[in-house]
Amino acid sequence: MKNEKGPRERWGIVVWFLAAGIWPFSFIEASESKDQTNFLKEADRAYYQGDLDKSVELYERAIIENPQDAGARLSLGATYAEKGDWDRAIYHLERAAALNPKSVEIHLDLALVCAEKGDFGAAVTYAKKALSLDPKKAGAYHAMGLAYEGLGETDKAVHAYRLGIQRAPKNSDLHLTLGNLYGRQGDFRSAIKAYEKAIEADPRNISAYSNMGYAYEETGKMDKAVDYFTRATKMGPADPVAWYDLGAAYDKQGNLLKAIEHYEKGFMMNPKSYKACMSLALAYEKNRNLERAAEFYTKALSLTDDPKLREAILRQITLANSGE
Q1: Does residue 108 fall inside a structural domain?
Q2: Number of domains making up the chain
Q3: Which of 170, 232, 256, 283 holds its CA 20 to 30 A away from the CA of 103?
């Protein structure tokens, strides 16, 4: 991503379907047909190796070879979605839907891609189509909830998430997304209950631990916030955001040494994080270690091209050097 929104966007409508495995599952199901061509096999291999440009080229060649292959269209649309090219993703997914109008997965993928693009009305339409094909499809309720949130219709979004949870009570991501909605509304008690359900369904859901920490922060229960941020680092020791969140919680408690320790762990994992770098600089300055503060302020300058941010950093360096 070019623009850092982090650390972890609180209560945000996140791109949950990649983490939940929606794209890869649809993709595999479509590509493993009996008459699969060499182009498709090679495209699949390129996709899983992370070479998305090559996979696009090969899927397009497969489509030229067999224009009626809905699976190839679906996989090409999924690959464009992974690249963030929503218009091309929708184009090919719509062609796949025309070739295979009874595919629940294609309509679900269309709903999700339209939601990511910001076309929430279309997302609702495609989610409803998926549900008309399979009324028990929990993922379609999830997509519908995201779309209704985008439209600002939170009551309908809550209803959709709850229906999805009724169909799939062990779906951790549904509980998580419902909790995020409650968090945005300031209903932290309900958010915490939803995150508890998310953790119960999947004890390794890092976002659920982190967002539980955010909820406890908002209610002023910093000890519990630190506890859940710590659990997030244990569940995801390689997740720089988890370490940042823990550092920020200690910072708010005034425990600068612990804050610096955890900020540094996160920054070592993601040395391009402007936010982590600035947090370290400020923490070192508050701890009166001006040499280290200056070091991280200087690093922060190299991590942003924003003239206002650069001006603010230079001003902060001047203040630190003057001992104010």
Answers
A1: yes
A2: 2
A3: 170
Is position 33 within any domain? yes
Q: Name the H helices within the chain.
A: 16-20, 22-31, 38-48, 52-65, 70-82, 86-99, 104-117, 120-133, 138-150, 154-167, 172-185, 188-201, 206-218, 222-235, 240-253, 256-269, 274-286, 290-301, 307-322
Final residue belonging to a domain, choices 123, 154, 185: 154
Q: Which amino acid makes up residue 242?
A: A
Q: Which 3 state secondary structure label does DSSP give 45? A: helix
Q: What is the CATH number of the domain that holds 4?
A: 1.25.40.10
Encode pLDDT of 179-212 as tens digits: 999 999 999 999 999 999 999 999 999 999 999 9
* Last residue in a domain, options 154, 189, 218: 154
Q: Are residues 287 and 146 in the same domain?
A: no
Residue 118 burial (CB count, 10 A): 10
Query: Cα angle vertex 318, ends 313, 321, to 5°?
Result: 125
pLDDT, tens digit, for every residue of 83-99? Answer: 999 999 999 999 999 99
Q: Could you tell me if residue 171 is inside a domain? A: no
What's the pTM?
Answer: 0.81
**CA-atom Rg of the chain in angstroms:** 23
Query: Residues 204, 191: contact at Cβ < 8 Å?
Result: no
Judged by DSSP in three states, 72 sits in helix
The CA-to-CA distance between both ends of the chain, in Å, stands at 36
Angstrom distances, CA of residue 81 to CA of 8, 77, 279: 21, 6, 33
52-65 and 38-48 helices, crossing angle to 10°: 160
Burial 159-189 (b: 16+ CB within 10 A, else e): ebbebbbebbeebbbbbbbbbbbbbeeeebe
Domain around 310:
276-324
Query: How many Cα atoms within 13 Å fall on the side-chain side of residue 108?
Result: 24
Tell me the three state secondary structure of residue 285. helix
Q: What angle do CA 174, 27, 156 make, to 5 degrees?
A: 30
